[in-house]
Design the sequence.
């Protein structure tokens, strides 16, 4: 396969440049790609007046960068992200991303942190299958999972998410994009735009890929207020999104009590393999979830103690962090997250 690649720069800052892959220009041959290159590139740039472009090029799939995809079950592939907070990484590529290949179509689970990462994901997908990518499922609204969605949309995928995701993402979209630009060089973010889902899940929904079906389930507020899990029924592989963290310190951005309730509800019942939002996959729910459960329960206990002691938020946060200090060596990016979690827990539990 040949892909259409376009060099682009910011119209107002010509030294801020990078490359974008335009899936609409894909072709089985170099000539087929070149025939449509100018038309595809001009149409794409016309919708983005903030960018200028150079002459488009057609490149073989093998000549482009691609994410590493590991097959974890039959037809199920995962890119495992760097289990640190975005600020500690060179490109923000911290989330686990999934690819499930059916008889008739492909579903992608989460799109990564930028257009650049999603392009590399798409190139990797095309190295293992030519089937149409018909579905992109977003597990929640955090930037490391959603900001690459436009690439998959351009491929032709319908975007499916929790019913609460549009409002949550819209409220944070500008901040997410500003953070991306502030953290990384232009090649890592140029062309990245926020897109909203096409389909929303209120409770449960099934997606048929031909010889396998995916069960999507929307959950009450826990890690965030837009958490969605995906179960591949054929292999019993469960993608939890960030409802499950491994290695990277869990972030409370929804409801601590709701998250603990989710963990206690045996959400992985029947799953043979659990793929968390961050960290390695596991065949054992007990082994995978125990460290996170212990940390969140300790957070709740320490927060309730601070509230009972009458500490104001300014004093409670360091007291809670100090109480949790024995657990810090078990988690990456712990110092960057513990104060935020303590603040969120205090604001929720002071009204119990």
Sequence:
């Amino acid at each position: 396969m040949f892909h259409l690649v376009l060099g682009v720069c910011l119209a107002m800052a010509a030294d801020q440049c990078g490359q974008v892959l335009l899936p609409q220009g894909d072709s089985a041959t170099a000539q087929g790609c070149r025939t449509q290159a100018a038309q595809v590139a001009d149409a794409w740039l016309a919708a983005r007046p903030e960018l200028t472009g150079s002459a488009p090029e057609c490149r073989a799939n093998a000549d482009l960068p691609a994410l590493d995809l590991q097959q974890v079950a039959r037809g199920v592939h995962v890119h495992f992200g760097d289990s640190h907070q975005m600020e500690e990484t060179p490109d923000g590529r911290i989330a686990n991303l999934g690819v499930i290949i059916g008889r008739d179509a492909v579903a992608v689970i989460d799109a990564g942190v930028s257009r650049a990462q999603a392009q590399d994901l798409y190139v990797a997908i095309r190295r293992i299958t030519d089937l149409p990518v018909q579905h992109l499922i977003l597990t929640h609204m955090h930037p490391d999972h959603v900001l690459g969605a436009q690439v998959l949309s351009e491929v032709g995928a319908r975007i499916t998410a929790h019913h609460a995701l549009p409002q949550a993402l819209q409220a944070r979209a500008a901040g997410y994009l500003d953070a991306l630009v502030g953290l990384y060089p232009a090649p890592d973010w140029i062309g990245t735009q926020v897109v909203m889902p096409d389909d929303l899940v209120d409770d449960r929904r099934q997606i048929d890929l031909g010889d396998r079906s995916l069960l999507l389930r929307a959950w009450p507020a826990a890690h965030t207020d837009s958490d969605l899990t995906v179960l591949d029924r054929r292999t019993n592989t469960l993608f939890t999104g960030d409802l499950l963290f491994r290695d990277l310190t869990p972030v409370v951005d929804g409801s601590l009590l709701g998250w603990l309730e989710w963990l206690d509800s045996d959400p992985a019942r029947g799953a043979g393999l659990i793929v968390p939002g961050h960290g390695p996959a596991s065949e054992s729910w007990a082994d995978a979830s125990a460290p996170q459960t212990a940390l969140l329960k300790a957070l709740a206990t320490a927060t309730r103690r601070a509230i009972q002691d009458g500490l104001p938020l300014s004093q409670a946060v360091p007291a809670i962090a100090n109480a949790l200090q024995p657990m810090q060596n078990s988690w990456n990016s712990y110092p960057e997250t513990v104060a935020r979690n303590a603040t969120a827990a205090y604001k929720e539990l002071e009204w119990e």
Observations:
- The chain has three domains: 1-64, 65-285, 296-349.
